[in-house]
Amino acid sequence: MADFIAPPPKPLASGLYLVATPIGNLRDITLRALDVLRAADLVLAEDTRVSGKLLAAHGLSAKLQRYDEHAAERVRPRILAALAGGARVALISDAGTPLVSDPGYRLVREAVAQGAAVFPIPGPSAPLAALTVAGLPTDRFLFAGFPPPKPAARRALFAELAPIRATLIFFEGGPRLAASLADMAAVFGPREGAVARELTKLHETVIRGSLADLAGDDRLAAPKGEIVVLVGPGKDRIATLDEADAALAEALTRAGPAEAASEVAKALGLSRRDLYARALALRRP
């Protein structure tokens, strides 16, 4: 059998390169990503210290420039001017695929508008890595980013997403994880879920179970590290009266009858009018 020989990399063309980087294990970077980072005139990074360690680990040196939510507005005009002049610019995040809950959308949009070439250099992605190991349906999924930090806004988002028949994917921080899981259990009801932490790293952990079980799991009280939370799609069935009453009772502890009825109606796909009447009945002494 003939040996497979990788062709030598082509000269890097002018344009903006969106380069995926490892989410934990430094060996997960692709050969093409290394070629681009080696040849780029400029590498834009969220944190140049983090990216500097990645480049050093692979024996690369590059001109690094900070590009995060604080610096983006200031430096973007200069980057666009460089692209217009034929520069080869790579955009990387601290971990994973650029633009996924990271700055970069406006840069890509404006680069496209001015006629610059934009190239995807695919590779690691925490949402997709978590989806593959969660044991939940993968035929349809929605990445929803970080839930709001305030409980009312967080529950409102979950209620908005509840009718979607797809696996939902969230990022969450350790200090807010327990509260988010409790709100998920209250709003989404009896669904399956998974919490993936430190994927590809030494302490990689995936915990699966019902949302109620996950919300009560002591291991998830205040975990450290990067966390992905997944919620399985709801069942195509009508909720029972007991389930509706339980959801209403929980919602009524923090909202009035009208708001509680709206929230549960979205979550369970039931009539708001009927739920409002039921909420009033539940509120009577």
Please, could you describe this protein's structure?
41% of the residues lie in helices and 16% in strands. The chain is α/β, with parallel strands linked by helices and 285 residues long. Helix 6 crosses helix 7 and helix 6 packs across helix 10. The longest helix has 15 residues. The chain is elongated. The mean pLDDT is 91.
Structural features:
five-stranded parallel beta sheet; alpha/beta; 285 residues; five-stranded mixed beta sheet; single chain; 10 strands; elongated
Class by SSE composition: alpha/beta
In DSSP terms (H or I, runs of 4 or more residues), the helix count works out at: 11
Task: Describe the strand arrangement of the main beta sheet, using strand numbers.
Answer: 3-2-4-1-5
User: In what range is the share of β-strand residues?
Assistant: 15-25%
Order of helices and strands: EHEHEHEHEHEHEHEEHEHHH
The radius of gyration is 23 Å
Low-confidence stretches: none
Shape: elongated
**Between the first and last Cα atoms, what is the distance in angstroms?**
81 Å
**Number of E strands:** 10
Task: Sketch the major β-sheet.
Answer: 5 strands, parallel
Q: Give the averaged pLDDT, no decimals.
A: 91
Share of helix, binned: 40-55%
Write the layout of secondary structure elements.
Layout: E1 15-19, H1 31-39, E2 42-45, H2 48-57, E3 64-66, H3 72-84, E4 88-92, H4 105-113, E5 118-121, H5 126-133, E6 141-143, H6 151-161, E7 167-172, H7 174-188, E8 192-197, E9 205-210, H8 211-215, E10 227-231, H9 241-252, H10 257-268, H11 272-283
Parallel strand pairs: 1-4, 1-5, 2-3, 2-4, 6-7
Antiparallel strand pairs: 7-10, 8-9, 8-10
Helix pairs in contact: 6-7, 6-10, 9-10, 9-11, 10-11
